[in-house]
Design brief:
With 319 residues, this protein is an alpha+beta fold. It is built from five helices and nine strands. The protein has two domains: 108 residues; 123 residues, Sandwich (Immunoglobulin-like). It is 50% helix and 21% strand. Strands 1, 2, 3, 4, 5, 6, 7, 8 and 9 form a nine-stranded mixed sheet that branches. A hairpin with a 4-residue loop joins β5 and β6. The protein is rod-shaped and about 200 Å long.
């Protein structure tokens, strides 16, 4: 029995806890006293008193009767003392059991209260987690909206910057077409060739320039025309051909005036300005009686128009 609850097992060894309690009970249980040892003195005294009262004469008989009375009175007192001791022992035992039951109930109530606290704490933590999750989701949504707004502002700023640059480029030449840069640009030699229908502007340079393309741009930086890949000539130079170039560009080159266009060469993925030099080469294409084509020098070539079939201009090439 523990705290007023009795646990019974069919097999004590089947339960480790029951076996431990049983072994502890056997170890702590007091040895049973032999009650015959306690009754023997009373029996001897009573027997002696009876014998004296039975066989005694005169005063001996009264002594025997007195002994019998004393023994009986002592037995009565001993019996009363024993009952009182047993009642007191039972009361102490009941109080101890009641105290153990009360303590067990208090412990159970404390465990239940702690369990309730744990459940309440768990519920509070769950609510806090849900609230934190909702807050995190809201912050993520707000962050994404803020990022979209920032990207929109970046696009608006970029568009405004491009608009401003376009407006500024409409009034001033681009920085990459600086005149000082053109004076110190790549050295190219120019010449003119007329193949019978189209005038070609030929630009020659050394192979060390590593140029792959040549283009003509106006003063606003807009590309007017661009050449194809160069041809290698017999003297070890690169030759670019621009068919039907602008007429005012040819006029400026022929007259030696400052040209109103920018000529650039593509070298290592970068457009670099050109420094033009007149090679003095003016050629045209002729055909002999057998139909063979030859390039001959045309020293009297004057150019006021790039295309002899362009009737919007009254001036043509004179050979």
């Amino acid at each position: 029995m523990d705290a007023g609850v009795t646990a019974v097992a069919h097999d004590v060894h089947a339960c480790a806890l029951c076996a431990a309690n049983a072994s502890a009970g056997h170890a702590q249980a007091p040895a049973e006293r032999d009650r015959r040892d306690e009754l023997l003195p009373w029996a001897v005294a009573l027997t002696v008193g009876v014998l004296i009262a039975s066989f005694g004469v005169g005063g001996d008989r009264w002594l025997g009767l007195g002994s019998i009375g004393g023994v009986l009175a002592g037995a009565a007192f001993a019996y009363q003392a024993l009952r009182h001791a047993q009642a007191k022992s039972r009361a102490v035992h009941e109080n101890a059991v009641k105290a153990l039951n009360t303590e067990a109930d208090d412990r159970v109530a404390m465990v239940i209260r702690q369990f309730e606290w744990a459940v309440n704490d768990l519920a509070s933590l769950k609510r806090e987690q849900d609230r934190a999750q909702v807050t995190a989701d809201l912050l993520v949504v707000q962050g994404r909206a803020r990022e979209r707004h920032i990207r929109k502002l970046d696009r608006d700023l970029a568009e405004a910057r491009r608009s401003q640059e376009r407006a500024a480029s409409a009034d001033a030449p681009r920085a990459e077409f600086d005149g000082a840069a053109e004076e110190s640009g790549l050295r190219f030699r120019w010449g003119l060739h007329f193949d019978g229908s189209v005038l070609r502007l030929e630009l020659d340079c050394d192979t060390s320039t590593r140029a792959t393309r040549v283009r003509i741009a106006d003063r606003f930086g807009m590309t007017v025309m661009k050449s194809l890949t160069p041809m290698h000539t017999g003297d070890g130079s690169l030759s670019f051909a621009l068919a039907d170039p602008p007429a005012d560009l040819i006029e400026d080159l022929e007259s030696g005036r400052e040209i109103g266009y920018h000529l650039q060469a593509l070298c290592d993925y970068e457009w670099l300005p050109l420094r033009l030099e007149d090679s003095g080469r003016r050629t045209r294409l002729v055909m002999d009686k057998r139909g063979q084509m030859f390039r001959v020098t045309a020293p009297n070539m004057t150019a006021t128009s790039a295309n002899p079939f362009d009737y919007t201009n009254d001036a043509f090439f004179t050979l």
